[in-house]
Amino acid sequence: MNLKLTSPAFTDGGRIPREHTCEGADTSPQLDWQGVPAGAKSLALIVDDPDAPDPAAPRMTYVHWVLYNLPPADGSLPAAIRNDQLPAGSQSGLNDWGRPGYGGPCPPIGRHRYFHKLYALDTVLKGLDRPTKAQLEAAMAGHVLAETALMGTYQKGD
Prior knowledge:
Blueprint: E1 4-6, E2 31-34, E3 42-52, E4 60-70, E5 75-77, E6 91-92, E7 112-121, H1 133-140, E8 144-154
Antiparallel strand pairs: 1-2, 2-5, 3-4, 3-7, 4-6, 7-8
């Protein structure tokens, strides 16, 4: 079975509910995964928006959530999870607001795409202290056994 990421909150390519955005409670959606490879020692999750600030003229990828050292098994993260509720051993990196934890969609203009990317790694990452997405990706280099993505969209007013 291949690594797969799903959410009961939205389908792949579907609209992310308002409660998970800056116009709602700004809480993370539930995420479920299955098909973790047998050799995985940890999982990492990156949620980002490649359409910032304007989908018609994107200039950057905005990072909404960075997690690593999640348990290497089929599982899930419940909706509205806080940093102090993460599974044992899991760590949070910094989003582009400069803080750990989830920051929901809050597009200034147009409909943006939000990629929830899950990576199965052959190691537990050590020596990181609240890494950015770039720092986490550098640490993951050469250690990715499998990856998958779940994409949701949001436009203010949805």
